Amino acid sequence: MSNEEKAHELISIFTCEKDRDIESFLKEKAILFEKLGKSRTYFIFDEDEDEFNILAYFTLAMQVLKVPEELLSGHKTKVLDGFSSKIRGSKITEFPTILIGQVGKNDLHKELISGLEVMEYCLAAVFKGQTILGGRIIMLECKDIPYIINLYERFGFQKLERDYDDGELLQMIKILEDDEIIEKEDYL
Fold first, then answer.
1. Which DSSP symbol is given to 167?
2. CB 82 within 8 A of CB 92
3. pLDDT grade for 77, boundaries at 50, 70 and 90
4. Nearest-10 Cα torsion for 121, 122, 127, 132
5. Shortest CA distance to 101 belongs to which of 9, 26, 17?
6. Which residues contact 180 (CB under 8 A, 6 or more apart)?
7. DSSP letter, residue 123
8. CA-CA-CA-CA torsion sign (47, 48, 49, 50)
9. How confident is the model at residue 119 (pLDDT cuts 50, 70, 90)?
10. What's residue 84's pLDDT?
11. Where along the chain do its domains lie?
12. What angle do CA 182, 187, 188 make, to 5 degrees?
């Protein structure tokens, strides 16, 4: 059995009743996105079991946050960029981000892991990637559900203030603090 066949077998039993998009992404797109280099999907599994049970997963990717110029003051732009509000005389409106694309728990084992623990694993992977690639903004998109928003806010994410259409996913960002950004000397 190939690695891809093993992966399909493992993810075939993942269920997420609360959000079918989380389940369908994993089953229909995650492997393709891996092959194309669009994202990386990470599994959290139960190491104490004799079987390999996926408790949860998350997907990370690089993304560009595009903010309409009229929503950005010079100060807000500089906060997002971290250095300047303009490049070659034009206001900066696009910012590189680390995207948390999907986060989901497996209904079959949801009592074995909390949303807080899933986010801790997720952010540990983000910080590991950030040490190699750089970056200072983490972005995610989520449904406008209070308990989900509260979970992300506990980790320092803030809703990007703009007008959202009905049913549109909210964009939330976390700008890394100086003490969260790993300095290059730490690796040399």
1. T
2. no
3. low
4. 110
5. 26
6. 127
7. H
8. positive
9. very high
10. 64
11. 3-186
12. 135
CB atoms within 10 A of CB 167: 7
Distances (CA, A) of 169 to 15, 75, 89, 112, 159: 21, 26, 32, 28, 11
Q: Which residues contact 167 (CB under 8 A, 6 or more apart)?
A: none
Helix, strand, coil percentages for the chain (3-state, nearest 5): 40, 25, 35
Distance CA 43, CA 58 (A): 7
Confidence check: pLDDT of 186 > 60: no
* Residue positions counted in the chain: 188
pLDDT of residue 171: 92
| CA–CA distance, 43 with 1 (Å, rounded to integer) | 20
- Mean of pLDDT values over 115-129: 94
Residue type, 36: L
The percent of residues above 70 in pLDDT, for the chain, comes to 83
Contact 63, 139 (CB under 8 A): yes
Of the pLDDT bands very low, low, confident and very high (cuts 50, 70, 90), residue 187 is very low
CA 173 to chain centre: 10
Instruction: Decide if 127 contacts 121 (C-beta within 8 A).
Output: no
Q: Which fold has domain 3-186?
A: Aminopeptidase (3.40.630)
